[in-house]
Amino acid sequence: MKCPYCGFMQSKVIDSRPTDEGCSIRRRRECESCKKRFTTYEKIEDVTIMVIKKDGTRELFDRDKIIKGILRACEKRPVALADVERAVADIESSISSSGASEVISTRIGELVMEKLKELDEIAYVRFASVYRQFKDVNSFLEELEKILGEKR
Fold first, then answer.
1. What is the extent of the structural domain holding 114?
2. Cβ(25)–Cβ(43) under 8 Å?
3. 62 lies in the same domain as 97
4. What is the model's pTM?
5. Are residues 27 and 58 in the same domain?
6. How many domains does one find in the chain?
7. Is 2 inside any structural domain?
8. Which of 20, 67, 88, 150 is deepest in the core (most CB within 10 A)?
9. DSSP string, 22-65
C-alpha cells in the first residue's frame, strides 16, 4: 500500500478490524520508510450499479454524491459524521441487496430522505426542499404538515 505521506510502496498492517457490520475491514498501517501511520479500508468489490437519471441518461453509482448531499443538508446541524456514514452504508446496502444492476435516481433520493428523517428533521426538510423542488411556501408547508402529522 502506497504511503500517503512519502509515497513509499511498503507498509505493514498494525491493526485490522471489521466495520460496517462486517462489510469492510479497517486497517491501521505504518509506512516502513517514514514510520507514519494511516488508515485504509478494504471491502468486497460490488457489481457495478448504474443510476438512471430523470432525463434517461445513465451514470455509475457514486457513493460520494450521496455523502455530499447528506452533509450539505446536515450543515450546521448536530449530526455526527459517523451517523452519516452509517446512513450511507445502509442506503448502499439497500441498493446492492436488490440485486439489480440499475437503479432509478428517484429511488436513491427516497432512500436518502428516509434516512435523513431518522437523522434530523431539519436536514430532511432542507433536502426535501431541493429534491422535491418546492415551488412555493405552500408546498413547503405541506411537507412540514406531513412531518407534524406523523409525530402526533
1. 50-151
2. yes
3. yes
4. 0.63
5. no
6. 2
7. no
8. 88
9. GTEEEEEEEETTT--EEEEEEEPPPPP-EEE-TTS-EEE--HHH
**Pairwise CA distance, residues 129 & 138, whole Å:** 12
For residues 16 and 24, is the Cβ–Cβ distance under 8 A?
A: no
My answer on whether 97 and 117 are in the same domain is yes
Indicate the helix (H) or strand (E) that contains 141. Answer: helix 137-151
Long-range contacts of 8-14, Cβ-Cβ distance < 8 Å, separation of 24 or more? 8/32, 8/33, 8/34, 11/38
120-143 pLDDT, tens digit each: 988 988 898 887 777 777 777 787
Q: How many residues does the chain have?
A: 152
CB 11 within 8 A of CB 32: yes
Residue 18 and residue 73 in one domain:
no
